[in-house]
Protein 1
Amino acid sequence: MLKSVRVRDYMLTRPVVVAPDTDIFEAIHQILVNKISGVTVVDGDGRPVGILSELDCLRAILKATYHKEEVGHHPVSDHMTTEVETVLADDDIIDVAASMLERKRRRRPVVDRQGRMVGQVTCRALLQAIKAFDVPEDRRER
């Protein structure tokens, strides 16, 4: 059974983040090295200002190639999605999962009451929570 239905119990507490002025190739490197599908872009105060996905990176590379530009000299702020949907640590994971499905988003930054990022909840984390709920105890760590 789920120990909780709160985001705080399933969120990543140290997600990979980048600054808006991070070079797009550095962000791509972080995505590849960490085997993740995207990163949250945070400002100097730790507030989420964007999301950069693998698709955003691919779009940036193709656009630069089409225009015969150097890709690596572009900051992630030129390519990130600026509509950031955040959640609080005490939000219900079922509501968050439903919203992620509805809006086709793979991650949600978790923020404190001042809007600073304290974690991230992802589809993978939600699947792990469901696995803990549904799988017999002797098969959980496979």
Protein 2
Amino acid sequence: MPQVSTPSFSQRLRSAARLYGTLVVSPSPHYVPVVASLGLDFIFIDTEHIPIGREKLAWMCQAYRAVGLPPIVRITSPDPAEACVALDGGAAGVIAPYVETVAEVRGLVGAVKKRPLKGRTLARHLAGEALEPALDNYVEERARERTLIVNIESVPALAALDEILAVDGLDGVLIGPHDLSTSLGVPEDYEHPLYQEACDTIITKARARSLGAGVHAVYPKNRLAHEEHWARLGANFIIHAADIILFAEGLRRDLSELKGRLGDLASGQGPKINI
């Protein structure tokens, strides 16, 4: 019987399949088997907003890979060196935040898709110089197992969207709601037509190029309705909330109900969590 290869995460992301994940903040080892039992396709680890050091990040990546969940890591800036650090730690893919230019995407392609090429060899190859056939096959085979996603979350990124999406080696885009709404001048107004139109445009254009697309909808109001809308529009990279957000919402809801039943005063809403 011929051996059938399993599609890589980047191949699945570019397909019509919907991939479901959540942001995991806690580095507790007890989380790993629990998260692995939830029917997710990947986990999202965010080092841009969460203080996770290199060693702890590598531990989390290796632990989740061991239970079959590809860890997708958002680095702190669109820096190719940071992308390499995440991949060396065991990340299956990298999300680069606040990308606004084609040059940034090409640099990230060099780090994620062209490893282990470095220095002048990498620069010449990115400029169009062909590699020796054996080396080219070596690089391309390893690129299959690494995923590159960029955050589209500003007006300049929207203006350069067509050119960004055309960069060879990019696998998908992720919308950052807080930053995008702020850049559009409607901070945290996720029902505003400007924000909704921008999200729809990003998703539609990315999927038309067979690139993955998603929105990390961390806000509580109408979260599921928004996720359903974008999924029906074509979004297939679905990051649902975060462990810390779902913990806070669930505990607040249950305590409020319990205090109401017992006639105790309800507590305040507590601080917002922006991720």
Protein 3
Amino acid sequence: MAYKFSSKENAFLTIITLTYNASKYISKCLQSLQLACEELSPNLLISHIIIDGNSHDNTIERIEEESPYSQIFIREAKGIYDALNYGISLTQSPYVMYLHSDDEIDTLFLELMLNKIRNESANESMICYGSVQFIDANSKILFTRNPPLYISFIQNYVNLIFHPNAIYSTCLEKDYPYATNKGLAADHHHITTIAKVSKVIRLPAAKYKFRLSDSSSTLSAIKKKSNDKLQTNNGMVLILKRYLNLFENQLLSRIKLKLFYHKSYWK
């Protein structure tokens, strides 16, 4: 039986998913969300909003089959950050998070995150971020990045918080909307801005699963952003990116794969 999501008005947490011709992985994404929600206390209400950019494959049919209580809003595709801002405008819960249509979450992700948040000050704006498990097309875990220790100086150059593996106070997202004129750097700009006015909480046990697959629309965008940065950023950025590597496992095997076999998990 499908998990029955709450209305927007009554929810403690709203989860926003953007879709556009996402039929390949959307079922796995929604199944992981259903399993995670089933671990929650019944009185902890979750709303799920899907913003679809007018898909012309069978994305909508798969959503209705897997998650009939998700709320679907279909509108013209005007870019990721425009859609995120629209999703936030619909959000009425005190907390919000994002789940990419290509990705999954660990079964305990929501329980761990929300228990941590509820133990914190209810009146304080916060960002709670966890680990990222990088998975392949078959959902096999390739390697894990534990949440880096947040250092504002480093955040000015590279993103220490992986955008979707966090839960945010909704007031932050409403007060500081995504800058749609910054292209794929908008998430970095956004997190850098809101982290200055919020409590930042690390939670390594909560695991978000980011899909490394050539057919992942999210990964394609990140590859483009990475290539653009390599062309425009100075050596400081490349040095600080090594800081992120300190929190990753399987690093030696990945270096070997690249040096000796000229391959990468990112391809």
Protein 4
Amino acid sequence: MFGPSHDPWLAAGLLLFVFPAASRYRVAPAQQVEPVQAASVISSKAAPSASLPSPPQRPHLTAEQIGDIDEVRGRYQAAIDAYSQVTPHTPVVWNKMGVAYQMMFALKHAAHCYKESLKLDRENSIALNNLGTIDDQLKDFASGERMYRKALKLDPNNALFLKNLGTNLLVQGKYDRGWDAFKQALAINPQVFENHFGPQTDDPIPARARGAANYYKARSCARAGLADCAVNYLRQALHEGFVTSSKIALDSEFSLLRANPDFQQLLAGQ
């Protein structure tokens, strides 16, 4: 997910993994799924010929690989059915099942899967991050923050975890700390706000909270010298009513954008 003192409207509203595009918590997949190459097919009606090569054999797919394919294609229940056939369940498989359940908004089942993953691997930072996104969806932001911090203790340079933490903090109205998390995430991965790290779910953050997140994303991008990124998020923050053109003009974080034509048009209200 972004970067926005404490306002009650922020705590009232909010995953993820999440989810309008500008304000999303990202759920971390257990691993990247390699594409499966489709085998060539030779018609059974073709006349046999000694010159024809033997038809290639279709690779045997495990239940987990079938689940991976179904999950990538958005067939989440089919993915769960496939993963359920894997024995024994590994921490990775439990996490994959959790992601599939979460994509169907079956949060109770998703949380159960992530916790089962952690029972087998207490240092599974991905499952901790994903549990944090469940907490945020349920508006238990304090618990979500704890999950992200636990994940970051295990993997301190994970830009995804930092971005999720930043969004969580901003929704709680902890603007300075949320912005710090965004800056750290952007320093690790300049595309952290744009990349899709895996499955995601609709983020129930209210519009004004999204505006706060987008505003602090814009500040982070401006500080990193990413003008287009900054202008894009400023435009969204304006649209969501969090900030005004006059406030943007007075913010020193955007001083390097003064000569940018798009920034000038933004301030002019175009």
